[in-house]
């Protein structure tokens, strides 16, 4: 009960933090970690003990599923070779180099524990990546690479971590066995993800009539898939990622419009709550982590943590530089560091924030080895891991947005959206031209619809050809949307007045209210698309 009360109070603090986020101008994960550290140092709230099971079985599945669901599979396939280098080769190389450093520098660290620490800090965090990139405007290709890396690198790092823990527990390590174990765990996770997705699509026919049941089943699915895969000895991370991609690929055909809208809203709330609470609680872990560290050792260990942070940055810089697509090509040399390849290289190199998965792996390290002997360096592993996480979040997280604003990568999202709109309009006009005409009313309806679509197509083409006119059209569209929003607001006030005077039943009122809500959401989406969101505050009263 006490833990529940703590979570309630922390949730209230989370709401307060988010309400002032825009004034502080910090990425939400960074702000939450800072507030968590402040709360832990001042002792204003008791520390919440965070268990590895809570992160692995409660936080990770929905976050990975949501990220996989929103990953473009064609783009993922196109960049798969680069994503594999980042998610597998970079992780193993980072683990090895950190292990060599730790073994030779930190007192009492054998090769087993050194590789454990290397595996813990090697993967950039999926939660941190998705949270920070969502708040920053980036080119599509960069987002695909960053989020694709974060989807797969947890699996690589956790498998390396398990092999290193086995070496600590048994005192023996076989590279051959570790390689086979990696393949077995990875391929098993992929198989589980596909199998669960396939079975769900077969069962889904019985759920189609109830959007509430559909939504609940989809929300439950990543938790069940992760648990099943882990119990079978496979990678739960890969199982959930493959499941999310599999269902996302088939979502256009199987889910109803009502289900997609409902799922979208619910997933937004779930991810919002998990991301917020986990980063706030992450910052609050400092007192419990410091408890087992002697005071004279704190500063040297912080220095070691900073050196490991520098190693992580250097290894990532070098590996990305070695990939031809990210290195400074001939055109980049001639155009300078602000060429597009140079911009991508800098942003990717500086996007290596660590987070909750690394902390969970450190917390999951056993207290004793296979012979029952105490692992004396466990508290050191935990503290150094926490220090590295904080350095990456604060140094890289705080400066990443400024780096992006400085080098200004080209984002073709608006142009792509324009092309897609033209494509859909052109295909729609062709579709209507081939519809069999059945009676005068059908013919009249088709002509009206074709005229409307042709007018929209003409407006888009004219706006694309004449940029000056496009700016004028955006201003006109903004004024129209402002008027439309004020009209919805007026109707909502009239609706409330009618209900309060008892003229209509609540059922009819709620139905109309829902229509107005959808209308408002559509208007706000249009405002966002046209860059006219700022006029929302200027609604005519």
TrEMBL record:
Keywords, comma-separated and alphabetical: Antiport, Cell membrane, Ion transport, Membrane, Sodium, Sodium transport, Transmembrane, Transmembrane helix, Transport
Membrane topology: Multi-pass membrane protein
Ranges that cross the membrane: 28-48, 54-71, 83-103, 151-176, 182-201, 235-255, 267-286, 298-324, 345-368, 380-404
Taxonomic source organism: Sphingobacterium tabacisoli
Protein name: Na+/H+ antiporter
Ranges of residues in domain Cation/H+ exchanger transmembrane: 11-404
Function per UniProt: Na(+)/H(+) antiporter that extrudes sodium in exchange for external protons.
NCBIfam families listed in its UniProt record: a_cpa1
Pfam families for the chain: Na_H_Exchanger
Regions annotated as coiled coil: none
UniProt subcellular location: Cell membrane
């Amino acid at each position: 009960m006490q833990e529940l009360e703590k979570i309630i109070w922390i949730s209230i603090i989370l709401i307060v933090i988010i309400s002032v986020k825009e004034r502080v101008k910090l990425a939400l994960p960074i702000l939450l970690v800072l507030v968590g550290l402040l709360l832990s140092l001042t002792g204003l709230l008791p520390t919440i003990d965070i268990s590895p099971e809570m992160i692995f079985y409660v936080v990770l599945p929905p976050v990975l599923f949501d990220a996989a669901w929103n990953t473009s599979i064609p783009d993922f396939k196109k960049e798969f070779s680069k994503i594999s280098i980042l998610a597998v080769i970079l992780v193993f190389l980072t683990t090895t180099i950190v292990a060599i450093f730790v073994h030779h520098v930190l007192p009492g660290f054998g090769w087993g524990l050194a590789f454990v620490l290397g595996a813990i800090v090697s993967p950039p965090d999926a939660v941190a990546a998705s949270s920070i990139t969502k708040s920053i405007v980036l080119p599509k290709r960069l987002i695909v690479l960053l989020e694709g890396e974060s989807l797969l690198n947890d699996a690589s790092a956790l498998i390396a971590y398990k092999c290193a823990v086995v070496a600590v527990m048994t005192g023996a390590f076989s590279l051959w066995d570790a390689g086979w174990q990696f393949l077995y765990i990875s391929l098993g996770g992929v198989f589980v993800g596909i199998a669960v997705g396939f079975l769900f699509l077969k069962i889904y026919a019985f759920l189609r009539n109830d959007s509430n049941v559909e939504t609940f089943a989809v929300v439950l699915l990543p938790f069940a898939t992760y648990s099943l895969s882990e119990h079978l000895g496979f990678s739960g991370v890969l199982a959930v990622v493959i499941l999310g991609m599999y269902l996302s690929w088939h979502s256009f055909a199987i889910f109803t419009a009502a289900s997609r809208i409902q799922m979208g809203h619910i997933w937004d709330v779930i991810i919002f709550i998990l991301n917020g609470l986990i980063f706030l609680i992450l910052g609050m872990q400092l007192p419990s982590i410091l408890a087992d560290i002697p005071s004279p050792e704190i500063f040297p260990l912080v220095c070691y943590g900073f050196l490991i942070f520098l190693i992580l940055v250097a290894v990532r810089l070098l590996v990305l530089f070695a990939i031809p697509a990210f290195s400074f090509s001939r055109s980049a040399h001639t155009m300078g560091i602000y060429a597009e390849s140079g911009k991508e290289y800098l942003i990717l190199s500086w996007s290596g924030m660590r987070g909750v998965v690394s902390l969970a792996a450190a917390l999951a390290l056993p207290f004793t080895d296979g012979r029952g002997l105490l692992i004396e360096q466990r508290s050191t592993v935990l503290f150094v891991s926490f220090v590295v996480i904080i350095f990456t979040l604060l140094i890289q997280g705080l400066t990443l947005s400024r780096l992006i604003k400085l080098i200004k990568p080209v984002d073709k999202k608006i142009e792509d959206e324009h092309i897609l709109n033209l494509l859909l309009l052109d295909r729609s006009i062709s579709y209507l031209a081939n519809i069999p005409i059945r009676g005068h009313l059908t013919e009249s309806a088709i002509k009206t619809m074709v005229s409307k679509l042709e007018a929209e197509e003409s407006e888009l083409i004219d706006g694309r050809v004449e940029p000056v006119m496009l700016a004028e059209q955006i201003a006109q569209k903004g004024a129209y949307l402002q008027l439309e929003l004020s009209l919805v607001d007026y109707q909502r006030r009239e609706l409330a007045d009618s209900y309060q005077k008892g003229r209509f039943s609540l059922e009819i009122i709620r139905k109309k209210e829902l229509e107005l809500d959808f209308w408002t959401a559509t208007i706000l989406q249009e405002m966002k698309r046209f860059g006219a969101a700022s006029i929302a505050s200027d609604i005519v009263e």
